[in-house]
Specification:
About 25% of the residues lie in helices and about 30% in strands. The protein has about 160 residues and is α/β, with parallel strands linked by helices. Strands 1, 2, 3, 4, 5, 6, 7 and 8 form an 8-stranded mixed sheet that branches. The chain is globular and about 40 Å long.
């Protein structure tokens, strides 16, 4: 079942969304395949620490986050992947690894790779707090609600 905080937020903001229920999948690529979405069209949330501060980096599911480029793009001295122990308590209503890219709901900065939206009318699909549900909304609505910092990770 979709994470209620996110669903209520989207409803309160009058954002139309599509829910795609799929077989349990743990990796972004498995999720894309199970939900019948191309990896380039599924947003993957990667938890990182930027100079020790927790942040989300949102990239297409078929991308990796190059930490050197992330450090340069964000202007920090140190960029590293966060461990599950460092962030799991921040998302008490989500399964670990299935956090939606809505850091604004969890007091976490969000950095979005410029390749998430190849066109102005693009849609974004993402984990909805579980390993069995994906939501799809327009990228414009995602930008309006989350206000991510746009970065280029060189893909």
């Amino acid at each position: 079942m979709t994470e209620p905080r996110l669903q209520h937020y989207l409803e309160d903001q009058h954002v139309p969304f599509e829910t795609i229920h799929h077989a349990r999948a743990l990796t972004a690529q498995e999720t894309a395949a199970s939900a019948h979405i191309r990896g380039s069209q599924l947003a993957k949330t990667v938890m990182v620490k930027l100079d020790g501060r927790l942040a989300m980096v949102v990239v297409p599911a078929d991308y990796r986050v190059p930490l050197g480029l992330l450090r340069e793009a964000t202007g920090v001295d140190n960029a590293e992947l966060a461990t599950e122990a460092e962030f799991s308590d921040r998302f008490p209503d989500c399964e670990v690894g299935a956090m939606p890219p809505f850091g604004n709901l969890y007091d976490v900065d969000v950095y979005a790779d410029e390749n998430l939206a190849p066109s102005a009318d693009a849609k974004i699909a993402f984990n909805a707090g579980t390993h069995t549900d994906v939501l799809r909304i327009s990228y414009r609505e995602f930008e309006r609600l989350v206000r991510p910092k746009h970065i280029s990770l060189g893909h």
